[in-house]
Design goal:
Chain A: Belongs to the CPA3 antiporters (TC 2.A.63) subunit C family. The complex is a heterotrimer. By secondary structure, chain A is mainly α. Helix content of chain A is about 65%, strand content about 0%. In chain A, helix 1 (about 1-20) packs antiparallel against helix 2 and helix 2 (about 25-45) packs antiparallel against helix 3 (about 70-100). Classes of the chains: A mainly alpha, B mainly alpha, C mainly alpha.
Chain lengths: ~110, ~140, ~500
């Protein structure tokens, strides 16, 4: 199972990288969110996918799952939710203002006015 | 082009309250079971987004005439404010405590200070989500 | 007094939240931000003395014992940087009062300024790697907003790239945390430091993780070859924002490398620290090449930010006491003086109406004060003795020599000279040369813009002249980094 999940994380990173390398805003933004998901899956897998009871007081169980990675992933997901939505709005505004969603046309020039 | 979304609008009228009720349940469930301020807030926000999709932005504004940026700020203030309580009691920041109280109708209930923090999270999530949706939605 | 350590984080955070309620009341926003910034300076200086007298201060958030809960650790390095941050942010805030236009002020400029400070201070104070990620994100999200704030075309264009680079490096950060947790089973830095010694069989994978973290922090801290995003994006926003970015944001990345490469990843220094040394040398060289090549004053200064990254990280890579002390001195000096230079350059652009060197000249005729302040700041940057850059560079050279890195010391000397050349070029072309400005206030005046830079230059002179007094503090900071046992004992209380 861990092997499968590692491969999945790799596939997500690969797909995300492919999307980020394209030229359209919306593809890039979706690509970054896929990369973040890859990182989250990786975090989940790295902590071990053992089966165990939830780590709550008063529960009789031989093994407990490690709660820390889940807390970490929740935090990371919330952050990536916020950043992705900001990024969406930014991409939209940039498209409105510059009139293009092609990153090739957004190359920096030396003039700053 | 005027689209005909009578099915969506009719369904929304019923589903809206189910989602809202479930979100409140999720919110209070959070201390010992899966749930909590984040997921409750997200669910409430999704109910409002459904309303926004079925009708329009004016409708949401009529029903809820509040500035969602202020909701976010109020939520942040609540969440940080619960942390500040620890200064009064001389315990580490964000310490929490709980106790059991008996209520007339509800019986014995556990009340935890963590719930206050969760109220803050709940408000922040609603505020942020709807601010984002409104920002994109308004600009057309 | 248990909660004293969190005050530097809470003050800007609470101020920011309160300001969110009153977006249109600009005067109130200014007054409250000013009070908060002054308070932050006072609290952080008090904390410096407390750490000096009573040793490392820790706060276990929510009463959870480390390594299970998140712990805030105020050791000397962290708290010195927090104090410097507070002073720089106060000066930049004063500068924003006169330079940020009313439209921006009404759109949450001051709240996000405070949130940015929250993130920076939090990243310095935390003792947990994942919490470091969270404070990084607080800082970055505030910086995303500030960099695009105002929404001009060039800002939108550059901020898209800035956000993209940082989102990807954040994802890599999470991946790094995942690997580290898999290998060490903890994320508390003191606990990690303790465990890393017993993980000798895992050394190769730890080295991989160390390099992954170097990439992540290198992207945020503008290390060669990962600084490509920095010049264009830092030149885009208004100068007050550029000043706070140039003075603080890259420094947080550098601090993270400093911390992890002295406390955590010390299992295979022959490999990891050699990479760091070589990259630091290349950063110095390529940064200064950029500074010499450009004709735009903002760009010249931005490339100088990259040079400083190289200097500090070279000190970290030596793993000697002199090198560490030099790095700390230089880091503090650079935060102050880069802030001052960005503000002065901002004032120059205001009075000249352009940022291109060819179009300005003879500014000294009407703006002598500005000119000589700029000259003093450049002298401090390069390290002329009574000012602040000297002691840092001296210690860095000593550390480099005692670590046997003669080539890199030589590269440092050469790039210092070129830094001098690149900055003096601004002075000679911009302030002397053909007079382009007919009247004193043709494009704008320097009213209120000089005081903040004067404060920072005074602080810089203070660091230089008071180096003797500052020395014991910096020595304590370096000792804690060289002997992680002190840090571990203070955090885990064994």
């Amino acid at each position: 199972m861990e092997i499968l999940m590692s491969i999945l994380a790799g596939v997500l990173f690969m797909a995300g990288t492919y999307m980020v390398l394209s030229r359209s805003f919306i593809r890039i933004i979706i690509g970054t969110s896929i990369i973040s998901h890859g990182a989250h899956v990786l975090l989940l897998t790295m902590a071990g996918l053992k089966t165990g009871a939830p780590p709550l007081l008063g529960l009789e169980a031989g093994t407990y799952s490690d709660p820390l990675p889940q807390a970490l992933i929740l935090t990371a997901i919330v952050i990536s939710f916020g950043v992705t939505s900001f990024f969406m709005v930014l991409g939209y505004r940039a498209y409105k203002e510059t009139g293009t969603d092609d990153t090739d046309r957004l190359r920096g020039t030396d003039s700053y006015d | 082009m005027k689209s005909n979304d009578v099915i969506l609008q009719t369904a929304t009228k019923f589903v809206l309250f189910i989602i809202l009720a479930f979100s409140v349940y999720m919110f209070f469930n959070g201390h010992h079971e899966p749930g909590g301020g984040f997921i409750g807030g997200l669910m409430t926000a999704s109910a409002l987004v459904l309303l926004l999709l079925a009708y329009d932005i004016e409708m949401v504004r009529n029903i809820l005439p509040v500035d969602f940026k202020l909701v976010t700020a109020a939520g942040l203030l609540t969440a940080v404010g619960t942390g500040l309580g620890s200064f009064l009691f001389g315990v580490p920041f964000l310490s929490q405590t709980f106790d059991y109280f008996t209520f007339p109708v509800l019986g014995e209930l556990e009340l935890a200070t963590a719930l206050l923090f969760d109220v803050g999270v709940y408000l922040v999530v609603i505020g942020v989500t709807l601010t984002i949706i409104q920002t994109i939605g308004e600009d057309q | 007094m248990t909660n004293f350590v969190i005050l530097p984080i809470l003050i800007p955070l609470l101020t920011g939240i309160i300001l969110l309620f009153f977006p249109k009341k600009v005067t109130f926003q200014k007054v409250l931000s000013f009070i908060a910034s002054v308070l932050l300076v006072i609290v952080s200086v008090m904390l410096v003395f407390q750490v000096h007298n009573n040793g490392i201060q820790t706060l276990e958030l929510g009463g959870w014992q480390p390594p299970f809960g998140i712990v805030l650790v105020a050791d000397m390095l962290a708290i010195l940087l927090v104090s410097t941050t507070s002073i720089v942010s106060l000066a930049v805030l004063l500068y924003s009062f006169y330079s940020i236009d009313a439209e921006r002020e009404k759109y949450y400029y001051y709240p996000f300024f405070q949130f940015l400070i929250t993130g920076v201070v939090g990243a310095f104070l935390t003792g947990d790697i994942f919490n470091l990620f969270v404070f990084f994100e607080v800082m970055l999200i505030a910086s995303y907003i500030l960099i695009v704030h105002g929404g001009t075309k060039v800002q939108l264009r550059e901020s898209f790239k800035y956000v993209l680079v940082n989102v990807i490096s954040s994802a890599l950060f999470v991946a790094g945390v995942a690997y580290l947790y898999a290998v060490a089973g903890t994320l508390n830095m003191a606990h990690l430091s303790e465990r890393i010694g017993s993980l000798e069989t895992q050394a190769p994978i730890l080295t991989v993780i160390a390099v992954l973290f170097l990439i992540v922090f290198g992207l945020k801290g503008a290390l060669f070859p990962l600084y490509f995003w920095l010049p264009a994006s830092y030149a885009a926003p208004p100068s007050a924002i550029a000043a706070i970015f140039g003075a603080l944001l890259t420094k947080v990345g550098i601090y993270s490398i400093f911390r992890t490469y002295s406390v955590v990843f010390v299992h295979d220094t022959g490999y990891t620290h050699q990479i760091l040394a070589v990259l630091a040398a290349l950063t110095m060289i390529f940064g200064v090449v950029g500074a010499v090549a450009h004709q735009d004053v903002k760009k010249i200064l931005v490339y100088n930010v990259i040079v400083a990254v190289g200097f500090v990280l070279f000190g970290v890579s030596t793993l000697t006491e002199e090198g560490f002390m030099g790095a700390i001195f230089y880091l503090m000096h650079d935060m102050v003086i880069k802030g001052a230079l960005f503000l002065l350059i901002g004032a120059m652009v205001v009075v000249a109406g352009t940022s291109h060197l060819k179009d300005m000249g003879g500014l000294i005729k009407h703006h002598a004060q500005l000119g000589w302040m700029f000259f003093t700041a450049v002298m401090a940057l390069v390290g002329i003795p009574p000012l602040s850059g000297f002691i840092g560079k001296l210690l860095l050279v000593q550390g480099g020599v005692s670590a046997g890195q003669y080539w890199i010391v030589a590269a440092m000397m050469v790039s210092s000279l070129l830094v001098l050349y690149s900055m003096i070029r601004i002075f000679l072309n911009g302030f002397y040369g053909k007079i382009q400005l007919e009247h004193a206030n043709q494009y704008g005046s320097t009213k209120g813009l000089l005081l903040p830079s004067a404060i920072l230059i005074a602080v810089s002179a203070g660091i230089g002249l008071g180096a003797e007094m500052l020395y014991p503090f910096v020595a304590t900071a370096a000792e804690t980094l060289l002997h992680p046992e002190i840090y571990i004992d203070a955090v885990l209380k064994e």
